[in-house]
Amino acid sequence: MKHSLRVCWLYHDIMDLYGDKGNMMVLKKRCEDRDIDFVLDTCGIGEKKNLCDYNLIFLGGGDDKTQFSLIPDLLSRKENIKQAMDENTFVLLICGGYQLFGQYYTASDNQKIDGLKFYDYYTDTGADRTRCVGNIIIEANLDGIKTQIVGFENHGGQTKNVSKPLGKVLSGYGNTFDSGYEGFYDGKILGTYLHGPLLPKNPVVADFVITKALQKDDPEFKFEDLKPLENSFDEAARDVLFKRLNVEKTR
Ligand SMILES: NC(=O)CC[C@H](N)C(=O)O
């Protein structure tokens, strides 16, 4: 069976912080190297798109003002996003995008916006406008695949009441200054504060996202079914961060 990865990048023109676009470039390359068709579609404010047509939805990070500007459009797509998720479209969310799938987001000026409310987590602002900034390494278990994920975080938002964190923080902050946990993963969405961009620095996560997306069309598809690729440049970049943060690289 010829597989295809059809991505819809929501608000591609305004939600793209710290190289989030690199995530799309990596998916394209890792698919092409395996003869998997790759289609990248984008969806801006006001554009008509049926998100059920895709097997992956991607939403990157953004500053507070940008998050506020898109929220009416995002909320107008709530039913369609829910339907896509029910039909096994996988969702990858970075930082500002991750926040907007929860109950609400309170920005640094204390203005509050409703999120999509798909999950119980919510995001308050850091006290006295403090922000979690810096490189971060977490330890995650992605449906049995144990991996260490590296990235860069820069958020004022403090995300609380996270029932299923993506991983345990080994160095850096994560969902809040002191929760010790980072992100959210429940099999349907993977939300994380990690820019970096995320996927170029974490080939295992990139392949995991590809696997989850392909499972919409082929539920039997497994991570191990992906042809292994050569990751020496990615690993060299990871080595630098592990060394700099003084964390033992075990995977
Ligand atoms: N990097 C981001 O996406 C920032 C998200 C949000 N504006 C915050 O500061 O918490």
TrEMBL record:
Keywords: Cell shape, Cell wall biogenesis/degradation, Glutamine amidotransferase, Hydrolase, Ligase, Peptidoglycan synthesis, Transferase. Residues 6-202 form the CobB/CobQ-like glutamine amidotransferase domain. The active site is at 95 (nucleophile), 195. It catalyses: L-glutamine + H2O = L-glutamate + NH4(+); beta-D-GlcNAc-(1->4)-Mur2Ac(oyl-L-Ala-gamma-D-Glu-L-Lys-D-Ala-D-Ala)-di-trans,octa-cis-undecaprenyl diphosphate + L-glutamine + ATP + H2O = beta-D-GlcNAc-(1->4)-Mur2Ac(oyl-L-Ala-D-isoglutaminyl-L-Lys-D-Ala-D-Ala)-di-trans,octa-cis-undecaprenyl diphosphate + L-glutamate + ADP + phosphate + H(+). GO terms for molecular function: carbon-nitrogen ligase activity on lipid II; glutaminase activity; transferase activity. Pathway: Cell wall biogenesis; peptidoglycan biosynthesis. Its EC number is 6.3.5.13, 3.5.1.2. InterPro entries: Class_I_gatase-like, CobQ_GATase1, GATase_3, Lipid_II_synth_GatD. Substrate binds at residue 131. The keyword Ligase applies. The keyword Manganese does not apply. It comes from the Bacteria. One of its GO terms (biological process) is peptidoglycan biosynthetic process. Belongs to the CobB/CobQ family. GatD subfamily. The lipid II isoglutaminyl synthase complex catalyzes the formation of alpha-D-isoglutamine in the cell wall lipid II stem peptide. The GatD subunit catalyzes the hydrolysis of glutamine to glutamate and ammonia. The resulting ammonia molecule is channeled to the active site of MurT. Forms a heterodimer with MurT. This is Lipid II isoglutaminyl synthase (glutamine-hydrolyzing) subunit GatD. It comes from Faecalitalea cylindroides.
